[in-house]
Design brief:
The structure holds three protein chains of three kinds. Chain A is an alpha+beta fold. Chain A folds into two domains: 1-40; 51-148, Rieske [2Fe-2S] iron-sulphur domain (Rieske Iron-sulfur Protein), CATH 2.102.10.10. Chain A is 25% helix and 31% strand. In chain A, strands 1-10-9-4-3-2 form a six-stranded antiparallel β-sheet, with no helix packed on it. In chain A, strands 5-6-7-8 form a four-stranded antiparallel β-sheet, with no helix packed on it. Chain A is rod-shaped and about 100 Å long. Chain B has two domains: 1-37, no CATH class; 45-293, Cytochrome Bc1 Complex, Chain C (Up-down Bundle), CATH 1.20.810.10. Helices cover 68% and strands 2% of the residues of chain B. In chain B, a hairpin with a 2-residue loop joins strand 3 and strand 4. Helix content of chain C is 60%, strand content 0%. The longest helix of chain C has 63 residues, at 284-346. The chains are: A alpha+beta, B mainly alpha, C mainly alpha. The A-C interface holds A 12-13, 16, 19-20, 23-24, 26-27, 30, 70, 72-75, 95-96, 98-99, 112-115, 127-130 and C 133, 135-136, 161-166, 259-260, 262-263, 266-267, 270, 273-274, 277, 321-322, 325-326, 328-329, 331-333, 335-336, 339.
Chain lengths: 151, 372, 347
């Protein structure tokens, strides 16, 4: 009888050790899997709210035209002045937060909601907007346009 | 065979080649001898013995998740918020690491408070454990400072205002007040300079001091063993103690794993929030509150009248808390009865009153309408 | 008594036209005013005589009409930009209402006196008083201040179009413009009211309850059909927008980051605003032009929202798996503790 009890116990011990070992193993995987994925750098290497590289090429923006782009989580507008210079601003109208647009016929930025006008320096020149549009810094490197917040 | 040789042979029994190799170089068998002797008393207050280890476990979690966060966090006013946002959205499991770090901080301070009050009420600070108590009180101060400095790092609205209010407080002290405030803030107001300063304190200064004090604290606990509460009846003290290895430690690990499961659930269901980026020119949002572990102090200061006997209420409050901290540190020396080995009710009641006051003021702080 | 000698030029309390002359003595003199504020206008008196007030004063010596001192408090005159001034944007309505809301005072003129209470209900007043947007219109922005007169039927749209340029332009190019003038209908005010201009709602479009089109149109005529079609387009975009907003809010509330999707939803909101403006062309194609790209954008945002909710489910499943593993380890440990302690007890 004693031998049977001993064998039973040996079996139970073996099972418990196996069970404990396997679950601890699973636990370690559950810890180290997220940690290793975390350490691998993501595809987009840096945050886009300090600055973005536009998907547009400099040649895509003709003089006296403007286009909306995404800056972080807000819309921005990139404009090429009639003189040929690239400028970028926040596209959020300072009146009631509609998205502004470039009007080639006016040669400056305009908000359709309540007829607000902004000049090519972002300054509010007519209509209800109380403040100028925030201006961003534009840098071109070859075929890439980089827009960032000024320091 | 001589006793020593027999002993040496016995200690090598049941160990593999690797252990033997390390033993020759590190002296593992000596450590094993010491470890096997470590015992934990068994009685109705044994439960409280687990909370120190739990706090230690959570601290280790903080070290690990904090180090991981260092890989992506950027400590400047221009980039901090964005880097945390990036971490939460673009980095795989970034939300998990950050949320665990945020929740474990709160959980650690909770277990620390439980550990502190259990030690206080069970009078574990009696001789020869006064230094353990002192290092413990210092560690508690360090933990709160960890919480305060870490809170600013995401550079969001709530953190900016909480830090402004928090760093104003030492400013009320006469004479050195404004110097202290400037020292803390890295300037006159809370700015990017404050952020960088707090970052240095949070990731380098505090961990360094903490590890040293923790080392001392743990060494002292080892040296003096676990204290048995003085007010236990004789028959309660007679139960055989539990070996630390493996019995108590395995139970410890069960507790730690439970805490880990709780942390994972909190991270998944209540991930850390980010809110809006700090804007120094915006007015304070309505109803700003400090973290829960500072609430009782915050509420006390709010409730003090502007002037008490000609002294500014706030100054009185700050000095009061300073004296309170000093009192806590000196408890082992002030509790004459426990020092003499007798059981006394005075300090038990003092402890319960402090605990009651903290709970009551915290509750009031959260139930008061922010408009008042 | 030479101090108050009229022959020597003493005026006493100026009355009627005298007031205009006394104020105009300086304020119409460009060379004089230049010394104080070169950018101030100097044509107030000229304008005044084109106003209803000025004409009645001139032609009928009506002593009840407003003169300079009626609006610009005689002795405590302050610049319009001063919040204490009676002609500060936030106080203009009360100043005009001083006469125009007083039924007893206005009785001989047989014109309505409900403009002030109506204006107080309007979205323009709400924007100014609650939101603090001082660019919102008050009495003088639509009626003129010194040349105050109600806008003529054909030019109500021009007045509203000072701010609502898009809507005004579309309206002027639409079939309604000429018809309204011919029928003597006052343009924008016909559907939107004049003093009590409230926030627009989609219910105003179509043939249902609360629709303004039913004033002239019914389901039998082409106008009614157009109204219904435009309403349906707007509703479809709005419904998609609301649905997507719900999904994104749910995801955000659960802690999922949805910045990109919210950005796209913002673009959809812009499309919705443009579509609602396009109604004023009273032409289904004009509305469709805005709604179609809007629907594409909102559907993309919706897809992102669904992906965020999927990720949320993934996190919760991951959590469940982790908790199961941890519970298994705990169970193993508890059994192990029991096993060890049984062995220890036996020794």
């Amino acid at each position: 009888m004693k031998k049977e009890i001993l064998l039973d116990e040996m079996g139970r011990r073996k099972f418990l050790n196996w069970f404990l070992g396997t679950s601890v193993g699973a636990f370690l995987v559950a810890v180290f899997y997220p940690v290793s994925r975390y350490l691998i750098p993501p595809r987009v290497e840096e945050s886009t709210s300090r600055g973005v590289t536009l998907s547009l090429k400099p040649a895509d923006i003709k003089p006296n035209s403007g286009q909306i782009f995404r800056f972080g989580s807000q819309p921005g507008i990139i404009v090429r002045t009639p003189a040929g210079e690239l400028r970028a601003f926040s596209a959020v109208c300072t009146h009631l937060a509609c998205i502004v647009q470039y009007r080639a016929d006016l040669g400056h930025i305009w908000c359709a909601c309540h007829n607000g006008h902004f000049d090519l320096n972002g300054k509010n020149i007519a209509g209800p907007p109380p403040k100028p549009l925030e201006q961003y810094v534009v840098n071109t490197r070859g075929e890439q346009i980089f827009v960032g917040k000024g320091s | 065979m001589s006793e020593r040789v027999a002993e040496a042979m016995a200690s090598k029994e049941g160990h593999g080649k690797l252990w033997l190799w390390l033993d020759e170089r590190i002296g593992l068998s000596e450590l094993e001898k010491v470890a096997k002797k470590k015992e934990v008393p068994v009685h109705r207050h044994t439960l409280w013995y687990y909370f120190g280890g739990m706090t230690l476990f959570l601290f280790v979690i903080q070290l690990a998740t904090g180090t991981l966060l260092l890989f992506y966090y950027r400590p400047s006013a221009e980039e901090a918020y964005e880097s945390v946002q990036f971490l939460m959205t673009e980095v795989e499991f970034g939300w998990l690491i950050r949320s665990i770090h945020a929740w474990a901080a709160n959980l650690m301070i909770l277990t620390l408070f439980i550990h502190f009050f259990s030690v206080f009420l069970l009078k574990t600070y009696r001789a020869p454990r006064e230094l353990t108590w002192l290092s413990g009180v210092a560690l508690m101060g360090l933990a709160l400072t960890f919480g305060f400095t870490g809170y600013l790092l995401p550079w969001n609205e709530l953190a900016l205002f909480a830090t402004r209010v928090g760093t104003e407080i030492p400013g009320v002290l006469p004479g050195i007040g404004s110097f202290l405030r400037r020292l803390l803030r890295g300037g006159d107001d809370v700015t990017g300079a404050t952020l960088t300063r707090f970052y240095g304190i949070h990731v380098a200064v505090l961990p360094g001091i903490t590890l040293l004090l923790l080392g001392l604290h743990l060494f002292l606990v080892q040296k003096h063993g676990m204290s048995v509460p003085a007010n236990l009846k004789e028959h309660e003290k007679n139960q055989p103690p539990m070996p630390f290895f493996p019995n108590f430690l395995l139970r410890d690990i069960v507790g730690w794993l439970t805490a880990l499961a709780v942390l994972a659930a909190l991270a998944a269901y209540y991930p850390a929030e980010l809110g809006l980026k700090a804007d120094a020119f915006k007015p304070a949002p309505v109803g700003i509150k400090p973290e829960w572990y500072f609430m009782f102090m915050f509420q006390t200061l709010k409730m003090l009248p502007s002037y008490v006997l000609g002294i500014e209420g706030e100054l009185l409050g700050v000095v009061g808390f300073g004296l309170g901290g000093l009192f806590l540190a000196l408890v082992p020396f002030l509790d004459r009865r426990s020092a003499a080995g007798k059981s006394g009710k005075l300090f038990t009641w003092i402890g319960i009153s402090i605990l009651g006051y903290m709970i009551l003021l915290t509750f009031i702080g959260y139930s008061v309408s922010p408009m008042r | 008594m030479t101090a108050m000698d009229r022959a020597k030029g003493y005026i006493g309390k100026p009355q009627g036209q005298q007031i205009i002359q006394v104020c105009g003595r300086c304020h119409s003199d460009a060379r004089f005013m230049r010394q104080y504020n070169p950018s101030l206008r100097v044509d107030q008196v000229t304008e005044y005589y084109t106003s209803v007030h000025g004409q009645r004063l001139n032609e009928r010596a009506d002593a009840k009409v407003a003169t300079c001192v009626s609006c610009h408090a005689a002795h405590s005159i302050r610049a319009p930009s001063d919040p204490r001034s009676t002609v500060h944007p936030l106080r203009v309505a009360e100043t005009c209402g001083g006469c125009h809301a007083n039924a007893e005072y206005m009785e001989p003129y047989k014109i309505p006196t409900d403009q002030l209470p109506k204006y107080k209900k309007s979205v323009h007043w709400k924007l100014m008083s609650v939101k603090g947007d001082l660019s919102a219109p008050t009495c003088n922005d639509c009626h003129g201040n010194h040349g105050a007169a109600p806008p003529g039927i054909s030019w109500v749209g021009n007045v509203c179009g000072q701010c609502h340029a898009q809507n005004s332009e579309l309206f002027n190019g639409s079939s309604h413009a000429k018809v309204f003038v011919k029928m003597g209908i006052p343009g924008c005010a016909a559907c939107h009211g004049n003093h009590d201009v409230t926030e627009t709602e989609d219910e105003m479009l179509g043939l249902g309850n609360g629709a303004v089109c039913t004033g002239c149109h019914s389901s039998g005529d082409k106008g009614g059909e157009t109204a219904l079609a435009m309403r349906q387009l707007i509703d479809s975009l709005n419904a998609e927008y609301v649905r997507t907003h719900g999904v994104l809010s749910k995801a955000e509330h659960a802690g999922m980051p949805v910045n990109q999707a919210l950005f796209e939803l913002n673009e959809a909101k812009t499309a919705l605003v443009k579509a609602r403006a396009a109604i004023h062309a009273f032409n289904v194609d004009a509305v469709k032009k805005e709604v179609t790209p809007g629907l594409a954008i909102v559907q993309k945002a919706y897809a992102r929202g669904l992906r965020a909710l999927d990720e949320l489910q993934f996190r919760r499943k991951g959590l469940a798996v982790s908790v199961v593993i941890i519970v298994a380890v705990i169970a193993g440990l508890v059994l192990k503790i029991r096993q060890i302690e049984r062995k220890q007890a036996r020794k």
